[in-house]
Design a protein that fits this description.
The protein is mainly α. It has 18 helices and four strands.
Length: about 425
């Protein structure tokens, strides 16, 4: 881990004023490595779920990211990519698991479901703080993401939240004529909460900051990060990333009958439905991964700010802050323009070599960004193709009807039985007619 973050090392070793000398750069990186080893060697800590089941909660960095850092691959884009991959993959797993959970839940107690392993059982994973991923019971995950909670939940109020001023002015209602649940629904929301929660629907809340700043706790607890929370909530609302696609599907009615489950899995309508679900989720993952990458770029990491002048005053920095520092630290320093005029030729050549290396890195990053643009365009085309496939299915049904109408109609079968005899006597004409 001598070169823990190559981009950070480049920034630290640059001849600007980030670190005054090569010796200072080495000290900064060694500090980074030592502090990381001391704090994050043990990347898992026990967490007790509501049922009492012991599970593991990864703290700040998952184990494979720790391995990546040890392997000297911690460029800023790899940090962002790793966290985006984790968030996108877990979202996909959560969405796919909804179907088996709905089938099996009725006869399995919540406790027994929770006792299953994380890989094979009904746990969802949520990211409650930057860099922290925690398993939660699937029932809790579904409850948190119910439509009613996302619109009327205590942390979901916005400028569109409906309320009644009559509750404040009518003493009879306030005293108890209105049920307590109804009072909560019609109570005027807090103005500060409304203002903050409006960022849940605002793309600017994701893209504009270069870092989502940690807010220290007033009581000595862990810091919070409202900007990061709003960015994560934006993905839920914009991409409907936690929508339960199994809603309305009556799977629980057959879960006690394995034969019916087997029949369902070979039913043509089920096969088409399952393919549609997988297609929807596959296309949606492009959007979610892109948004999660933007968030990961702006998520602060502990001690990443040491080599770039500690911009957040807590030793943390986001990958985007490191990139910004690397690109702009010279032009923002008025002394640099004066010093470059007086530097020895060998110093100028060393500066040019570093800048060329940084340009190579930026070209590579630009290539990755262009790939994401292509992916976004591809997602739009895939959506169009999916809509066309639905239309094609309807056209096939219509065409089959037309083909059936063209086929010769089957002739009526001739009967070998003689026609029925008319045994009624003939009507005689009256006399004199």
């Amino acid at each position: 881990m001598k070169k823990l973050a190559r981009v950070v090392l480049l920034a630290a070793a640059a001849l600007g004023n980030a670190v005054s000398s090569e010796a200072d750069s080495t000290v900064a990186v060694q500090h980074f490595q030592k502090d990381f080893d001391n704090k994050y060697t043990e990347v898992y800590a026990p967490s007790t779920l509501s049922s009492g089941t012991q599970a593991k909660t990864s703290i700040m960095y998952p184990d494979y990211l720790k391995t990546m850092l040890d392997a000297n691959m911690a460029t800023t884009e790899s940090l962002s990519s790793t966290f985006a991959l984790r968030a996108t993959s877990q979202n996909l797993i959560n969405s796919l698991t909804e179907f088996s959970y709905k089938l099996l839940k009725p006869t399995s107690s919540e406790a027994s479901l929770q006792s299953l392993s994380l890989e094979g059982g009904f746990f969802a994973e949520e990211q409650t703080n930057p860099g922290q991923f925690s398993p939660i019971p699937f029932a809790k995950y579904n409850s948190q993401n119910e439509l009613s909670n996302l619109i009327n939940g205590p942390t979901s109020v916005g400028s569109d939240t409906l309320y009644s001023t009559e509750l404040q002015t009518n003493s009879a209602m306030s005293s108890g004529d209105l049920p307590q649940d109804a009072k909560k629904l019609v109570k005027q929301p807090n103005a500060v909460d409304v203002k903050n929660n409006n960022n849940n629907f605002n793309f600017a809340a994701i893209i504009e900051p270069t870092v989502y700043k940690n807010v220290p706790s007033n009581n000595g607890g862990a810091p919070t990060n409202p900007q990061w929370t709003a960015a994560k909530n934006y993905v839920i609302y914009a991409a409907q990333s936690t929508k339960n696609l199994s809603d309305g599907l009556n799977l629980n009615s057959i879960q006690n009958n394995p034969g019916d489950v087997a029949k369902l899995k070979t039913n043509p309508d089920y096969l088409k439905f399952a393919m549609t679900i997988r297609t929807i989720l596959a296309i949606r993952s492009i959007t979610i991964d892109t948004l999660e990458y933007l968030i990961a770029e702006r998520t602060p990491h502990p001690n990443l700010g040491i080599a770039i002048k500690d911009p957040n005053k807590d030793k943390s920095a986001s990958p985007l802050q490191v990139e910004e520092y690397q690109a702009n630290q010279r032009i923002k320093d008025k002394n640099w323009y004066a010093s470059i005029m007086n530097d020895a030729p060998v110093t100028v050549q060393r500066t040019i070599a570093i800048e060329l290396a940084e340009i190579e890195h930026q070209n590579y990053q630009a290539h990755l960004d262009r790939e994401r643009i292509l992916a976004a365009l591809t997602a739009a085309n895939l959506q169009t193709n999916l809509a066309g496939s639905t239309s094609l299915t309807q056209q096939i049904d219509t065409l089959n009807t037309d083909i059936n109408n063209m086929l010769p109609k089957p002739k009526a079968l001739k009967s070998n039985n003689p026609p029925p005899q008319n045994n009624k006597p003939a009507i005689q004409a009256p006399p004199g007619a």
